[in-house]
Input
Amino acid sequence: MNFAEVIAQIDVKMRQLGWTREQEREHLKRNYGKRSRTLLAYKELLDFLQYLYLLSQPTPTLHEILIAKINVEIQRLDWTTDQEQEHLKKNYEKRSLTLLTEVELFDFLQYVISQPTPPLEILIAKINVEMQRLRWTREQEREHLRKYGERSLTLLTELELLDFLQYLAPQSASPTLYEILIAKINVETERLRWTREQEREHLRKNYEKRSLTLLTEVELLDFFQYLVSLLQ
Output
C-alpha cells in the first residue's frame, strides 16, 4: 500500500467517524508533533490509519471485556477446553463463558488471575510457536528483545515473557481487546485535553509505568474506566 492509498483510506475513515480537520490537526500535533498528515512518515501514516480503524470498531460491552480477559488468563495458564468446562460446570453449573452473568464472570476472572503461571519453559515454547507462525526471523526476534534490554528469551522475566506472548498472539487477527482499549483511552484523553505529561504522571503515580503499551489489560481497563468517570 503506497502513500496515496493510505491517505485515501484515512479520508474514508475520517468521514465515517465524522472527524473534522481541526480534530485531525489536534491528534497529529498531540501524537506526532506535526500539524499535517503530509508531514508524517509512512510508518506514522499507517499508525494513524490503524488508530482510526480501531475507533470505528464498536466499543466492547463489559460482558465481552470480561470474557476476553478470562480467555487471556486461560491462555496464560495453558488450560484445555475440558479444564475450563469442568471448572464452569463445578462452580456455576454452566458449560460456556457466554452463559455466565457479569457477577459470575468477575468471580471466575478473579480466580484465574490468582492462579500461578506455568513454568517459564511453557511460555518460551508458546512464544516460539507464535514466532514460527508469523515467520519471524532471528533478527526480528532480537530486535524485539531489545525492548526488554535482553538478547535471549531465556533472560526474560515471567512478566516480560507474557508481554511478548500477548504481543505476538494477536498480530494476524483483527484488533484485539488490548488494542481497542488503548485506542479508546487515546480518545478519552483527547476529549479531556490531557497532555502527554498529564498522562505519564497518572501512569507513573497509579501503575508505576510511563507508557500505555506497558500496561496490562487489567490496568488498561482500569485506566479507561477512570477516564470515562471524569467525563460523567
About this structure: The two ends are 41 Å apart (CA to CA).
